[in-house]
Write a structure and sequence with these properties.
heterodimer; A: about 280 residues; 3 strands; B: about 450 residues; alpha+beta; five-stranded mixed beta sheet; three-stranded antiparallel beta sheet; 18 helices; 11 strands; about 45% helix; about 10% strand
Chain lengths: ~280, ~450
């Protein structure tokens, strides 16, 4: 009997290990291919044989990226848009979620539901009306415009996310602060936010990755090279039906770095935030 | 949970604070683009031309024109728009009434934008081009014409070139390029050694290359898309015979890789450039890329028009055009920019620096040693001289444009190849579908 149990456990262990190895391969193989392609020259990429490692590794694609394209500008623009969107998403979503969970005012329930409904609107339906709005207020072709548009997507979702977390915090903690003389905003910033760091990390990560990776709005709302972001810069490596794989893979690889950094920095909080309070309502 | 009542004073305080925070992104982000004031700009959407030098020439010509027209650098804007982004961007720009002043216009865009009144009549520019010694290639002009007016100035000819690995054919004992499809199949069988295939025939459901591939077989057997009056004319013995032949190459002789049914427009490029196929039909972008990358296959590659059949060899070519938008606030400046691009000296400079990617629309320029001294271009020069468009003997209309975008012909071809549909039934169904589309759009059937 014991032997059978051990055999079953062993079977599941190896089955799980096999599944994990397959999934790891599934996830890492494209990344590996991206890295090695970025280190090959164009003739090897289009060469007669497939090479798993560059025969003569070169950083030429990275040189092309920084010397012959506007990648650095796109990178800086993406960074600015990502960071500012994240910052303001945190501020607006925190204030909004706090108000919707703790304050009593007419239409509170309506606003709470409306947040979810606005998030359900397909983004691809909105880019033309939003372009018209941005044109009329003079924000087309500006990073400001992009940030405002992204905030329109991030704030409702982040507010909804934070509401769930705020609801899990006992109101007595706040009341104690208020009795001790703390203002309403003081309660929010001194008491509530410090204990909602995991949820804030999720909000930050979500906002940053959305604004970092977003393509369709960025491609329509900004046209000038000086304000383009990375997702709209990468397609420039496809000219007609010809693909410049080397620089494209190099740019894709570099553009994956900031979200990875953000993820690793907030990893501890992210896991808590995603699995504990942030999903409660 | 107890909720605290929000007082009016508190609401005002919070509101003021929120408004202050909301206003700060504009202060923080002080990176406006140059193109803030649309009214003061001449905007050229530059679609990259595969060749950086050629792109730079267009940029330089734009800036020189702007200078000569009295515009400062800040009053002209060149926006590089990758081809893949153009449709989305232009749809949005036209919808909000802010298209560029000038851009490159493809065949399909020419029909759609012209029919919707987005393009300006630039007949005067076309007439100036025609007045040059030798004139311009007239085969590609009907597409830009409507009611005697021209809405596009031709930018460069794209002869459809069969890129052929002659080294592989010669190694298999085939010394000369096969001039008929029957001869091609026999030769291809000798070359075919999977995973190396003889014929990288793009047959995916994409609007462009796959239709040209199919028509390259249909024409030599006497088929065509439309007749002289522009009525659907696909149903013919020639089309049926061509469908049979393609089926034979794919299913019986297996000289076409199985995966071609899912290829997009870049599929044949990639296969040829990676040395996986011996024949690929495409504009010369494949050849240019081999040249740019010092490909080991360059030496053994020849450029030809596709093989022929009982109805001869059909030489297919097309052109893009420079177009000016009716919403341009500066139509004269925009037309001046197009005139600068097509001014013979400027144009010659651009075409030659593009390194063979485009053939000149000015007939006389094809006599330049740049073209005549390179044997690889010989057959294509004949295509340029004698070729027709995909829509010959008619011209591209909205109905045909929809037939292309709905991949009507390709879908039926796939039905034959995958589902074993009878070629005659497939051809008949293409015809019926074309008639339905033409009738819906009020075009002659």
């Amino acid at each position: 009997m014991l032997k059978t149990k051990t055999a079953v456990a062993s079977f599941y262990f190896w089955l799980g290990s096999f599944a994990l190895i397959v999934l790891m391969f599934w996830t890492l193989a494209p990344l590996y291919w991206m890295i090695v392609t970025s280190l090959k020259d164009q003739s090897e990429i289009y060469g007669p044989g497939v090479t798993l490692w560059p025969t003569s590794p070169t950083l030429d694609n990275y040189r092309i990226l920084f010397e012959k394209t506007y990648f650095a500008t796109y990178f800086i623009n993406s960074l600015i848009v990502g960071l500012v969107t994240t910052l303001f998403s945190l501020v607006f979503a925190s204030l909004g979620a706090y108000a919707l969970t703790r304050l009593d005012f007419p239409g509170r329930r309506f606003y709470a539901r409306a947040l979810v409904y606005t998030y359900l609107m397909p983004h691809s339906m909105l880019f033309i009306p939003i372009l018209a709005i941005l044109l009329s207020v003079g924000l087309q072709n500006t990073l400001n415009g992009l940030v405002w548009v992204y905030l329109g997507f991030t704030v409702p979702f982040c507010t909804w996310l934070l509401m769930g977390y705020f609801l899990s915090i006992p109101v007595e903690i706040e009341e104690a602060g208020l009795i001790d003389g703390c203002s309403r905003l003081g309660v929010l910033f001194r008491i509530i936010l410090p204990i909602t760091v995991p949820a804030l990390a999720v909000v930050a990560f979500f906002s940053f990755t959305l604004s970092w990776n977003e393509y369709i709005y960025a491609s329509v709302l900004v046209t000038s090279t000086s304000v383009r972001t990375i997702p709209t810069g990468i397609p420039s490596f496809i000219v007609e039906d010809v693909f410049f794989w080397g620089p494209m893979m190099a740019s894709t690889l570099l553009s994956a770095v900031p979200p990875l950094v953000v993820y690793f920095v907030f990893q501890r909080f992210l896991i808590t935030g995603l699995t504990v309070g942030a999903v409660r309502m | 949970m107890a909720l605290n009542r929000l007082t009016r004073r508190r609401a005002v305080q919070l509101g003021a604070g929120t408004a202050a925070i909301a206003a700060t992104p504009n202060l923080l982000l002080s990176r406006p683009a140059q193109a803030q004031d649309r009214d003061q700009k001449l905007i050229f959407w530059l679609q990259p031309n595969f060749n950086e030098t050629a792109d730079q020439i267009l940029i330089d010509q734009t800036m020189e024109f702007a200078k000569s027209a009295g515009l400062s650098d800040d009053e002209v804007e060149i926006v590089k728009v990758p081809g893949g982004e153009l449709a989305t961007r232009m749809a949005a720009a036209l919808e909000v009434g802010a298209p560029p002043d000038v851009t490159r216009v493809s065949e399909n865009q020419m029909v759609t934008w012209r029919e919707n009144g987005h393009l300006l009549d630039i007949s005067d520019i076309v007439e100036t081009m025609r007045a040059e010694e030798g004139g311009i290639n007239e085969a590609i002009m009907p597409l830009a014409e409507q009611d005697g007016k021209y809405y596009g100035a031709p930018m460069g000819l794209n002869p459809m070139a069969a890129h052929v690995r002659m080294d592989k054919f010669e190694a298999a004992g085939v010394k000369d390029y096969p001039l008929t499809w029957e001869a091609f199949i026999e030769a291809a069988k000798k070359v075919n050694q999977p995973p190396f295939y003889a014929y990288g025939m793009a047959l995916g459901l994409t609007p462009s290359d796959s239709l040209r591939e199919i028509m390259s077989v249909v024409w030599p057997y006497g088929g065509k898309l439309v007749d002289e009056q522009g009525r659907p004319a696909f149903e013919s013995e020639g089309s049926v015979e061509a469908f049979r032949l393609i089926n034979r190459m794919y299913n019986d002789d297996k000289i076409i890789p199985r995966g071609v049914l899912s290829w997009d427009n870049s599929g044949n490029n990639k296969a040829f450039e990676a040395g996986q196929v011996a024949y690929a039909l495409n504009p010369t972008s494949i050849y240019s890329n081999l040249l740019t990358n010092n490909s080991p296959f360059l030496e053994g590659t020849g450029l030809f028009s596709p093989p022929g059949g009982p109805a001869g060899r059909h030489r297919d070519m097309y052109s893009d055009y420079y177009g000016v938008f009716t919403l341009s606030p500066y139509p004269d400046l925009a037309k001046g920019l197009v005139s600068t691009f097509v001014e013979p000296d400027n144009y010659s400079n651009f075409i030659i620096e593009a390194g063979g990617r485009y053939f000149p629309v000015y007939t006389k320029m094809t006599e330049d040693p740049f073209w005549t001294d390179k044997p690889v271009f010989n057959d294509l020069l004949q295509t340029v001289a004698e070729g027709h468009t995909l829509f010959w003997p008619g011209k591209l209309t909205q109905g045909l444009s929809e037939v292309m975008t709905q991949t009507v012909v390709q879908k039926e071809m796939q039905n034959v190849l995958v589902n074993g549909k009878d070629p005659a039934a497939a051809v008949a169904d293409v015809q019926l579908e074309m008639i339905a589309i033409f009738q819906r759009l009020g075009e002659p059937t």
